[in-house]
Amino acid sequence: MRMGKVKHKIAVISGKGGVGKTLVTVNLAATLAHEKGAGKVGLLDADIHGPCVPKMLGLKGSKLESGLPGIFPVYSEGGIKVVSMAFLLPNDDSPIIWRGPIKMGAIKQLLSEVAWGELDYLLVDLPPGTGDEPLTVLQLLPETDGVVIVTIPSEVSGDVVRKAVTFARMLNVPILGIVENMAGLVCPHCGEAIEVFMGGVGRRVAKDMGVPFLGSIPLDPGISGDSDCGKPFIEEHSDSAAAKAFREIVKKIIEVVEK
Hints:
Blueprint: E1 6-13, H1 21-36, E2 41-45, H2 53-56, E3 65-66, E4 71-72, E5 74-75, E6 80-84, H3 100-113, E7 119-125, H4 132-140, E8 146-151, H5 155-170, E9 175-186, E10 193-194, H6 201-209, E11 213-219, H7 221-229, H8 233-236, H9 241-257
């Protein structure tokens, strides 16, 4: 594998879809890139069937190139090195209709042949669940520093996150902590916090399962808008409550990983 110069490797997982895992991953990567400098953070989009990272980083239409010593990542405007299956598709409407063995082969190729160069952090955005793709990545990713698990403040999501915690433990992968996304809405007119969903689920699950709670990210209309426009939210709205939450989460991750 060409990861000998990658210092830290972190996978971002969720037990279920629809919790904003990729959005969280992209903004964590952008925050880390701001801290570490351009070219020091990589992002592997390992969601074979629904790769969204290129859209969120303004890289739609980009293509991977290869040569010596391997496959070269695409650079985002913020200096993040990105690899995604979306870069290999003929157009945005093309689905990937593959069975398990072919998918596993593609994942192995991405993990073994990408020339990342020197990185401080490589984040891997995994598809939802605990099936073939997450299992393969976590088994093959060398010296993983740990996983970040994303949930939303609902009991349904909380129940599935418990399975994700157990999944990581069964694979002997360290759990860096749980992030609760969509945790309340700050009214843009009066500034009052509105509990859209049942609050505190992420913190309660973390306590029950004996894992760290990294923080809560409030709902912000700008997050969705910036993602659709291909701009990391934390770069466009650095003074918002959500951007501050991302920075605090990254601070905790760095403290644990680099201690």
